[in-house]
Amino acid sequence: MATDGLHENQTLASLKSEAESLKGKLEEERAKLHDVELHQVAERVEALGQFVMKTRRTLKGHGNKVLCMDWCKDKRRVVSSSQDGKVIVWDSFTTNKEHAVTMPCTWVMACAYAPSGCAIACGGLDNKCSVYPLTFDKNENMAAKKKSVAMHTNYLSACSFTNSDMQILTASGDGTCALWDVESGQLLQSFHGHGADVLCLDLAPSETGNTFVSGGCDKKAMVWDMRSGQCVQAFETHESDINSVRYYPSGDAFASGSDDATCRLYDLRADREVAIYSKESIIFGASSVDFSLSGRLLFAGYNDYTINVWDVLKGSRVSILFGHENRVSTLRVSPDGTAFCSGSWDHTLRVWA
Amino acid sequence: MAQELSEKELLKMEVEQLKKEVKTPRTPISKTGKEIKDYVEAEAGNDPLLKGIPEDKNPFKEKGGCAIS
After folding, report:
1. B24 vs A contacts (CB less than 8 Å)
2. Among A143, A154, A327, A336, which is disulfide-ready with A173 (CB 3.0 to 4.6 Å)?
3. A129 has a chain B CB within 8 A of its CB
4. For B19, which of A22, A176, A339 is closest by C-beta distance?
5. Which residue intervals correspond to the WD repeats (chain A) (predicted)?
6. Domain contains A237
């Protein structure tokens, strides 16, 4: 009926204006806490000296773009995945390849090492996250032991084991994140709220409880309660896709890297963005970010082939690292903070220290 | 999934979420920023990438040649 249509539009309009006014109120509340800038708090902190970081190892063997990598807790092994469907486990000290498996799909955008070091998880255009146990039996066919765990309705963009080998958290192009039981493949919890593809996620350090942060093509970074499935905080200050999110080591903040060429720091207790890491000369997107052990340094890989090192407290860039011959797509600091590894569209991974 | 909900349903979800978020307890940056700074200062001594490691302790040092005596 005509009157129903009118009513429908009024409800839509009133919802929109309610949302706008709530957003305004949120801004106001957040602004009240903005009594000082982070770099002002850090004014008396000693400035950092020159950094000499160079490539110590180059891992060659992928036949196409490296899309993702993760460290093993043993601080020396890494797993990496590529556009050509290959997933490789390397010993980063010796550069030897220890395991390799070919996925039935291309663009393996996500890979992760299990906390025990005995398995890896990966997925991409197959819309799934699969777990492969790692075995040293030369006669074993790694692909034969594959277990499909997660099923999304679009590509898998990120995955991470939780504190144990038993659960995996995934992020997908279908706009959701999900928590899965590895053994049964059962969906334990799903997380809805992003308005577009979710591109990245990171789990809070275990001491800070059961939350994780995700970033997406809707320019939002969202913090989730893993038990309830609810979003507890959301931040929308980036001007483009958020490609990478990483918790600050204390768990009280997280950093993000975006196609808008900036990295930002969000303080969870102040509930706002507290720093932007950018320069006029940096115009290409940041694809991947990670902190050094103390949280003083933020390493960020960019689409202009470089890695910028930022002073988290003062907001300035302390170093720029050259070496990759194409986009840097992935970057992680090792578990003991002695090095970081970057992966690139130039088919290689580099370990820097 | 986001794509399956109607615009109205999405807006309702957004309004509910915003109502919750407005009530989030918050702390001023003068306090939280200081805590971030304190954390960094406490951990800086243990940060190998920040303070550097001597070549002989660095597991990624250049692979040396062999010395034959």
Report:
1. 232-233, 271
2. A154
3. no
4. A22
5. 59-91, 149-190, 191-234, 235-276, 288-320, 321-353
6. yes
